[in-house]
Fold each of these.
Amino acid sequence: MTSRFPYPLEKGDKLRIYYQMRELHRAGYEIYLVSLTEETVKEIDYQVVKAFCKKIFVLPLSRFSIFLNIMGNILRGVKRPFQVAYFYHLSIQNAIDTIIETEKPDLIHCHLARMSAYIEHVNLPKTLDFMDAFGAGTMRRCDISPFYMRPFWRFEARLMQHYEQYVASNFDFSTIISEQDKLRLSWTPTDTKVHVIPNGVDVDFFDISDFKNQNNTIEKKYDICFVGNLGYYSNVEAVRFLIKKIMPLVKAHKPEVTVLLAGARPTSEIWSFENEHIKVIGWLDDIREAYAQSRILVAPLMHGIGQQNKILEAMAMNVPVVTTPRVNNAVGSTSEKDILLADTEGDFAEQILRLLQNIDLQNVISKNGRIFVQENYSWHAATQLFIGLLNEKIIEKQPN
């Protein structure tokens, strides 16, 4: 059960769903996908996902129903976090109940707490993927919101944190993307039902050699890139910090430095940054092009949660990465060997200039980065952890 159709792969939650389904299908599981969607699912996207699924049920979520969901939550005295109420509608509940009754699944896997309300009452084996610590992430949003929005986000964060603890007790077990995020769920140090299942990278797909020209070289059009959903608040904040705080310090030493901003749904603010040295490209059908055309990935994420796929993808593509210790805590790579770390605009500028002025350092970090991803991250290995939990905690307990 997912709150978005898991294709195309322009968001981190879709990546996690898509590759987990692929590996579960390869392991012999029969998958029935139930996806809410606010957008019309294209036939070509539907067919990509259909390759892994026995059946697919797409349940449209209209703007009008979202409005009713939010108003209903208010009128009922705010019983659920708004980011949960946003996705909950009685007609969809009825549809899901009918699907469960008709298909009789052995297990229900719920992606994100926002979908858990639909199966609170279901007496079947069920698992929940928190993915990230959304309550903690919402609390951090208070720090970057306008002052008049901070009371709302603080209220929503507390609701979400309580709700996460409540729904966790209603599932056989739950999963989360990193140990760092697990610890952000305030009750988890003593909870043995929350397990870390990391993301992976398709290292065969994210291979820089696919972009070599006839001379066996890679054409680098940009010095720096940032990749991600450019409509997501943490990414917008990171790009703003990159362009307004870091780049002036870099340009003081290298005035002609170029930047590529690539990803879905750029905000008007992101588009406003475009000039002769900054290219905003928006959505790419093949995101590898952004990595392949760039010398460095810079990700100054100060408030992000979860595991940043962009970091692992860039490393797999032999692109050296400069990011924050907070981001690297969820990745676990070694500073000055696989990756470069920075906290302030001055630190970021220094690390960027080190790489741009030292080709040997670029080569060492990029080579080590890919080796690190190959040895530590793969979707197959990550999904095997999940399958192991299914076998241990659910499947083996079921009657013959």
Amino acid sequence: MVAELAERLAARLPGRVDRDVPLRRFTTYRLGGPAQIYVEPRDVDDLVVLGEELAREPQRAPVLAVGRGSNLVVSDRGWPGVAVRLGAGFSYIEDDGDEGLRAGGASALPQVANRAARRGLHGMEFAIAIPGSVGGAVRMNAGAHGREVSDCLSYADVYDLVNLRRDRRDVARLDLAYRHSNLAPDDVVISAVFRLDRGDPNEVRERMESYRRHRAETQPGAVQNAGSVFRNPPGDHAGRLVEASGLKGHRVGGASVSALHANFFIAEEGSTAQDVYDLVHQVRSLVREAHGVDLVPEIRFVGHFDGARADG
């Protein structure tokens, strides 16, 4: 079935479909096995073709939308289905009126922040510290420094691979909350429009520079990690709880809790996705025992892991 689906897709999307592509290439952890089928659409028409071919399958293949992989851990066994990574045609940033920006789903969030700053618009400064794509940021309602995507998002254009429908969804329809949206796995964020405010360009730049410095000073930037591992519980910080449990430097295989920031987990050369999975769940259990707080992972585990079936 997988081979037949791949053949049909390759026939209709020549040069944009491949088999057994290592997904580690597209994640900041640089871990994980291959996707059975990898599709890189160049435009919405390609997404329509993908949806049509998925609908022909007696048993629908699971879909994984892959952006810049900054919060994703793929199983060492890979992804048992179709991985979709938007191509260059979805990477653009353009003006949308006097105080708006439209960005393609594959655009890098820091580039959107820089474009806003050049126009003297404020409200996107927080995004300079988030190394994800626009699509991933909408899906996770990404945030930093007290702001998040929902604070400045006007709407997102989404392609629904199940119902073969392009849909415009505002913040209310996306049900955005802390690191949450109601986007389904088969929903692909095509683009997003951000509404911002006029500000002093120098002040906007100064805030962005302060956020860059804060990240450099407090986060392990030049090593393999996926940003914050756990969501902050109400009224507290996940990193504080992990550190207070004496877990800085705690290790499972080649994965360890950062000595710089306890809510960042590092994957050394030779480590596995299973190491990261085991470390996250071990730390979660130890913090629960020590403080009675059940930390919720912010990073996504996709595929099959020993001990449990991860989400996705």
